[in-house]
Specification:
By secondary structure, the chain is α+β, with helices and mostly antiparallel strands. It is built from 12 helices and 9 strands. The chain folds into 3 domains: 113 residues, Acyl-CoA dehydrogenase/oxidase, N-terminal domain (Butyryl-Coa Dehydrogenase, subunit A, domain 1, Orthogonal Bundle), CATH 1.10.540.10; 109 residues, Butyryl-CoA Dehydrogenase, subunit A, domain 2 (Beta Barrel), CATH 2.40.110.10; 148 residues, Butyryl-CoA Dehydrogenase, subunit A, domain 3. It is 52% helix and 14% strand. The strands form 3 sheets. It has a 4-stranded antiparallel β-sheet with strand order 2-3-7-6, with no helix packed on it. The protein starts with a helix and ends with a helix.
């Protein structure tokens, strides 16, 4: 299907931003886990936070395929920057597709500019990928809902002004997901955001724990205005989220592959560039093949979503394969670099620390396999 000329220009703009402004300075922020405020401000100015917002609300309104390409370019520079737009874009997508007219008018214009940044709040300390075991709940009070519970590993939490919270709003139904709602929660009384959690990679952008202690929100905070539809809403949103995570993995894999190809030409041993040694050349060939396969899976999922099709299986496949490929490509890039690959003097050690997030984030790869198997059977019943 391909991108429009305007979308190709946007991808090129992001690539230039990454090469000119991000890659030369990543270590200033990444090594000491410093929040990259100036990069985030530049991303707001360039319209990256409004990619999935409708034009009528000030957004850029690009296709999912373009969104995936932009995400890949950002992650090629620094995966954390791609993470900064991840949850925000999913909540933008949810409000655009399921929000009431009032919710769209209230949030989308400010989300499009990045004045309001949003994030998802799904994972709980004792639940992980098992969303059916969710305990965070909202009970009806006069004129609204009172929320109690906690969420953890919430990206961008300290810098977000809106949280798409998935929680229980009817504890009497079975299965549990039939009583879940997405509630649009703003910071306020009864809502505490912890200090950021320490992480192996994905540094610079924070991940925090959220605690809700009788946080009261009005009735119109329920996404779409009607409770107990949140599971279906969020599952649609996660299709976008998993394409976004697959695209992040593509960016990390491409950066690692590029560095390995460059180093294999510059480094010589036994009188020739190391890529001419079969063991190194084979590594490069396998890395490039995995990267291309991951890109095609991700592109297919994005284009299917743009055509209006259900893509939970395809997005799961893309996320599963691209994340595992990125992890292997990052490891193989270290092998190509030899001892230098283990040094912070080269970026490949950072790729190796960033890659695991895509394996465990947005639903672990073990969960993705369950989703894929379930959809395979559902779509091919005998």
């Amino acid at each position: 299907m391909g991108l429009s000329a305007d979308e190709e220009q946007m991808v090129a703009l992001v690539a230039d931003f990454v090469d000119d402004r991000v890659r030369p300075r990543v270590r200033e922020f990444e090594q000491d886990d410093i929040y990259p405020a100036e990069f985030i401000d530049a991303m707001k100015e360039l319209g990256f936070f409004g990619m999935l917002a409708p034009a009528e609300f000030g957004g850029v309104d690009v296709s999912t395929a373009c969104f995936a390409r932009v995400t890949e370019e950002l992650a090629r520079g620094w995966m954390s920057l791609a993470g900064a737009i991840g949850g925000h874009s999913v909540i933008t997508y949810l409000i655009r597709n399921f929000g009431t007219d009032e919710q769209k008018s209230k949030y989308l214009p400010k989300m499009a500019t990045g004045e309001i940044r949003a994030t998802m709040a799904l994972t709980e300390p004792g639940g992980g990928s098992d969303l059916q075991a969710m305990r965070t709940n909202a009970t009806r009070v006069d004129g609204g809902w009172s929320i109690s519970g906690s969420k953890t590993w919430i990206s961008n939490a300290a810098h977000s002004g809106l949280f798409g919270l998935l929680c229980i709003t009817d504890r009497d139904v079975s299965p549990a997901h039939k009583g879940m709602s997405v509630i649009l929660v703003e910071p306020g009384d009864g809502f505490t955001i912890s200090k950021k959690l320490p992480k192996l990679g994905y540094r610079g952008v924070e991940a925090c724990e959220l605690v809700f202690d009788s946080r009261v929100v009005p009735d119109d905070a329920i996404l779409g205005g009607e409770p107990n539809l949140g599971w279906g809403h969020m599952m649609r949103g996660l299709e976008v989220g998993r394409i976004q995570v697959a695209s992040r993995a593509l960016g990390v894999g491409q950066a690692a592959l590029n560095d390995a190809i460059r180093y294999a030409q510059e480094r010589e041993s036994f009188g020739k560039p190391i890529w001419k040694h079969q063991s190194v050349g084979n590594l490069l060939a396998d890395m490039a093949t995995k990267q291309q396969a991951a890109r095609l899976l991700t592109q297919d999922a994005a284009e299917r979503l743009d055509s209006g099709k259900r893509v939970d299986m395809e997005a799961g496949m893309a996320k599963l394969f691209a994340s595992e490929a990125a992890m292997q490509i990052a490891l193989d890039a270290i092998r190509v670099h030899g001892g230098y690959g283990y040094s912070r003097e080269y970026d490949v050690e950072r790729y190796f620390r960033d890659a695991p997030l895509m394996i465990v984030g947005e639903g672990t790869n073990e969960i993705q396999r369950n989703v894929i198997a379930g959809q395979l059977v559902a779509r091919n019943k005998i």
